[in-house]
Amino acid sequence: MLWSEFPAGPQLLHALSQQEIDFGTTGEVPPLFAQASNSPMVYVAWEPAAPQSVALLVPNSSPVQQIGDLRGKRIAVNRGSNVHYLLLQILDEAGLGLDDVRIVYAPPKYPLTPSDLNAVDAWMMWDPLLSDAENSGQFRVIADGTGRVNNHQFYLAERGFAAQSGDLLQVLLTALEQTGRYIDAHRAEAAALLSTELGISAPSLMHALARRSHQTQRMNLAIIREQQTIADRFYALGLLSRAIRVRESVWHP
Description:
With 253 residues, the chain is an alpha+beta fold. It has helices at residues 9-17, 30-36, 82-93, 114-119, 129-136, 159-164, 166-185, 187-198, 202-210, 221-236, and strands at residues 23-27, 41-47, 54-59, 74-77, 102-105, 122-126, 139-144, 153-158, 217-218.
């Protein structure tokens, strides 16, 4: 087995579309862009909502105090990611459109350098980078996903691999279910192990792990409908290249 790491979901799904990997996990928005681009991707499973794991951050010294203050501000966001959807929801809540702010598409990054701090006014981040930024004491959360987005995590497979290796996928899902239960019951141990792997402090990872459940669940009609709602929103705004039907990209064992 070959293990590959990616900075974010869009990059992982690009590799899957090129058949460089067979299986991976991303947030809820990257699969929508992948499907619109005719990626050979299928949904296999998902994890419960984690709305506090995504947020819009500003430096402590920022004049931005509430979402209405974002008008005219430069906001960094990873295009086609979960935080992209959160940004749309935040702007809508504030009565702002995409033309009312200056969107800077950029991959996820933390720690931020002095040049990063000068380049934009706010950042859309997700855990564990979000937790690390919060724990630094240098940033403030203006709005997280609570009441705005669900922020689900999905497990995805290359369509051909899923068709040919259904038995293996079932074994993998069982292992993910067991691992998820273990992580939720032993978060401190999981944080310590991940700290060495990711180069992020154990307290930051503990914070990130504590605000989400890792209970892997099989695909169902309710979660498919949630995904379809997000897809329709992105398409209506002209951000998806074509309309999609999420149900057409769901694995049926």
